[in-house]
Amino acid sequence: SYFEMLVDRGAVLVNGAREKKGFRGLRDGDTVEVRFLLDERTLPLEPEAIPLDIIHEDEDLLVINKQPGLVVHPAPGHWTGTLVNAVLHHVGASCGGLPNAPPGPDSQLRPGIVHRLDVGTSGAVVVTKTGAAFAKLSQAFAAREVQKAYLAVVAGCRQAYRGHYPGGGHSIEHPIGRSSLDRRKMGVVAEAGGGRSATTLARAVAESRDIALLELRPRTGRTHQIRVHLAEEHTPVLGDTTYGVPGFNRRFA
């Protein structure tokens, strides 16, 4: 992982001393210093001949039907084989590259990307090919002018999910933040504790005795928002290995 790489390179110091792989862990009162490094594997981004299911393309943008299992852009643990690598191969010399994201922690790794889908989620991803398109769509997403809808199969079905918008369905409103128990996960966290407000509209499209198909419309864009909200409502997404119920997942595997 990225942090293992930092330890291996001596970029993690505990009480002023470099730690080595497999170090003892931390004790109360320890002082930790981390020097974040850019892994050379992140640059340059290489085009890769990965098949893309293109829904629409014009001179300004691409709309791609992302398959589950495909990471949108390079990140620790997924330096290659991403949608960005595939798009770079697709546009080739015809586009002269993709517009860069504004400066940020991983901006050089996500050219043209204005929004993302989780690795296990399939659906439409918009990739911009020009700076003007990038700026306009980034602003539209930030202003919540883009309406997003998802379908998910979940365990069970609440009465509140039944109905139609407006006035039907269910507005799930739980603030979301980084889990204090597992920093790799998100969870419902009070705003006083650092959580950010989050709203998801949920409506049952079809249901059986044990499962339901929901239409979900997030009104905010928090990390893992839909999955966290549905787990909190005791209707987790079927097959979700992070927030779901293992026994239920195995039952329908």
Describe the secondary structure blueprint for this structure.
Elements: H1 2-8, E1 12-14, E2 17-18, E3 32-34, E4 54-57, E5 61-66, H2 83-95, E6 123-128, H3 131-142, E7 150-155, E8 170-173, E9 176-178, E10 186-188, E11 199-207, E12 211-218, H4 225-232, H5 246-251
Antiparallel strand pairs: 1-2, 1-3, 4-5, 5-6, 7-12, 8-11, 9-10, 11-12
Structure write-up:
25% of the residues are buried. With 253 residues, the protein is an alpha+beta fold. The chain is 18% helix and 23% strand. The protein has helices at residues 2-8, 83-95, 131-142, 225-232, 246-251; strands at residues 12-14, 17-18, 32-34, 54-57, 61-66, 123-128, 150-155, 170-173, 176-178, 186-188, 199-207, 211-218. It has a four-stranded antiparallel β-sheet with strand order 7-12-11-8, covered by helices on one side. Strands 2-1-3 form a three-stranded antiparallel β-sheet, with no helix packed on it. It has a three-stranded antiparallel β-sheet with strand order 4-5-6. GO terms for molecular function: pseudouridine synthase activity; RNA binding. InterPro entries: PsdUridine_synth_cat_dom_sf, PsdUridine_synth_RluA-like_CS, PsdUridine_synth_RsuA/RluA, RluA_PseudoU_synthase.
